[in-house]
Write a structure and sequence with these properties.
The structure holds two protein chains of two kinds. By secondary structure, chain A is of the alpha/beta class. Among the domains of chain A are: about 70-305, Rossmann fold (3-Layer(aba) Sandwich), CATH 3.40.50.10420; about 410-475, no CATH class. Chain A has helices at about 10-20, 20-30, 35-45, 50-65, 70-80, 95-105, 120-125, 125-130, 140-150, 165-175, 190-205, 230-235, 255-270, 305-310, 325, 330-335, 345-355, 360, 365, 375-380, 385-400, 405-415, 420-440, 450-455, 465-475, and strands at about 85-90, 110-115, 135-140, 210, 215, 220-225, 240-245, 250, 275-280, 295-300, 445, 460. Chain A starts with 10 loop residues before the first helix and ends with a helix. The mean pLDDT of chain A is about 95. Chain B is an alpha/beta fold. Chain B folds into two domains: about 5-115; about 130-235, Rossmann fold (3-Layer(aba) Sandwich). Chain B is built from 13 helices and eight strands. The longest helix of chain B has 17 residues, at about 180-195. The N and C termini of chain B lie far apart (about 35 Å). The mean pLDDT of chain B is about 95. The chains are: A alpha/beta, B alpha/beta. Chain B: This is Lactate utilization protein A. Chain B: It holds the Pfam family CCG.
Chain lengths: ~475, ~250
Amino acid sequence: MSLDNPTTPQFKANARQALANENLQSALRGARNGFVNGRAAARAKLGPDEFDALRDAGRDLKNHVLANLGDYLEAYEAKVTASGGHVHWAETAEDARAIVLDICEQAGAKTVNKGKTMISEECGINDHLAAHGIKPVETDLGEYIIQLRGEHPSHIIAPAVHVTVPEVRDAFMEAHPHLDAERDLSGLDTLLAEARGELRAKYFEAEVGITGANMLIAETGQSIIVTNEGNGDLSQSLPKVHIVMASIEKIVPTMEDAGTVLRILARSATGQDMSVYTTLSAGPRRAEDPDGPEEYHVVLLDNGRSNMLGTEFQDMLRCIRCGACINHCPVYQTVGGHAYGWVYPGPMGSVLTPSLIGVEEGGQLPNASTFCGRCEDVCPMRIPLPKMMRHWREREFEKKLTPGATRWGLGVWAWFARRPALYRLGTRMGMAALRVMGRGRGKLASVPLAGGWTGSRDMPAPQGDTFMAQYKRAQR
Amino acid sequence: MPRVALFVTCLVDMFRPSVGFATIKLLEEAGCTVEVPEAQTCCGQPAWNSGDRATAAKIAQDVIRAFEGYDYVVAPSGSCTGTIVKDYPQMVEEAWVPRAEALAAKTHEITSFLTDVLGITSVAADVPRLATYHDSCSGLRTLRVKEQPRALLASAGITVREMEEAEVCCGFGGTFCVKYPDISTSMVGDKVRNATETGAEMLLAGDLGCLMNMAGKASREGRGIEVRHVVEVLAGMTDTPAIGEGK
């Protein structure tokens, strides 16, 4: 997958490959219930009523922000500027790439440290920097692992969730040839310690640190990141230049509002009360500060988001990127994140991707849902994800992107469904045919034109005549 | 006596009429007068979920016209009930919204209707067997049907042994199961394995779509578990062959 060439249109083929990949399936099985159980325990501990009240508060807060987005962004910009920082407005991913490269080149950067940022992924920053002779170094453990493997994240908060422990060991053995070849790398602890040791030296080499932002606070001009490894702190405070990359909907009005989101964020994501590190940054180092960057830049990315305002997809901009919908999605659990073919997987990706890369490219994703509703049930911002996936299907139907056979089948079915007498006749004949084919065995191993079903499942045969026919006979 | 219209659902009509008759039996035992409006075909969900709003609206309006004259509408399906209750008010043309809301307010899934509306706590059937229960997604998450079937099953002597991930989708998802057969197959494979691992004799659920999916997979894999709609058990009508089994 490359960011400029999403494989999203090949979702079905990607999914088939993912199902046949035994390592991936093993990793997915291993990860399947950890976050799910974690969130459930966190909700129980806080109290379901309080948890759900926080979800209401989060939804209302974000709706308020989206209704006043321009005002809050301008207030934020003024605060950042007053503190000596710079705000850069990036309308597209390409703009963001150019802005970041320019800052890095001005700083004479050879190495850039990265805290975890999905906006950087969305903009393809790593490849862009590397193409211009600047080395990006991912400092989040998961991101570090996939960088070594030459991959993109398969999950927005657990980027290497698709990788098994033996695969991580192999990657480390190859990437760290200066270490003892006989060392023990069998456990997560030893892998974490080794990554920490390797990254420690790199923190001091980098001229620029790039982080994301979980939130931007309009009242104070601060940005907030949450991490569990502390890598964000080191990425942003040691280099002489700090770049924050954030999308425009990350803004909240006040510190207190940020507190509301923080209370629900980690609980929804990993089941922690709070992430281990919650770090605020607020501009360049002041005269009295013992440390901190000399320059502070914020790149605010739109990349299609403002086009979602005022449409049926606006609610998606409430998303705080906790990953709960992804963790609970049975389709994601079955195929993993790379099958989705672009930056954002799972239900949030299935709504967001068509918004950002176009429904022509991303339209497979909102179709690949059973509408089981588990995503909406766990979303801390109460985003009606299935409803928005259905809105994409409506757009596809209007644009005639829905496959011809599906449209034709729907048309025929609907014509009968609106004519009960003919429908009765048709269903009786159809069921009679299936019964003949079933020859009293109660099931059919194959049915013409229904290979999607009978390829892997038997088709239960109809019991007898239709209910409506039997009922009518019994009434007489 | 409340006058109840049975919305039989298209799958029950075609594949498993016994579920319709079991529903009628339960409703009559609970003191209802049951009628089956002849103009019914389908709730329109396939069009709605395929993005064909105009067709979905027309079908919804047909259903409203056929069913709005009764005290209650009851269906042996969380999925179709969910469509009428939650989606119709958004689905229909604007002038129809009040009628859609009125129908939504009196439409119920069968186990929820018996317990939540009629206050019934036990059924006459006595089926002392071990079962596991799959919570179909629409029933569970759209209508919050979870304890209702379990309470009624307990009254019929059924012991429910919960499976792992009982609340996870079985992979049916309407047209999803044929549009994405590989993913659907993997999901229903997990579901049938979880169900079988409980050691239960029967796998029960309240939606025929999920049941046909699970029964079809269990049958293909030779799992030997008896798959039935919950109302068949509650009505004591387990003498018919289970779903996907011959006579």
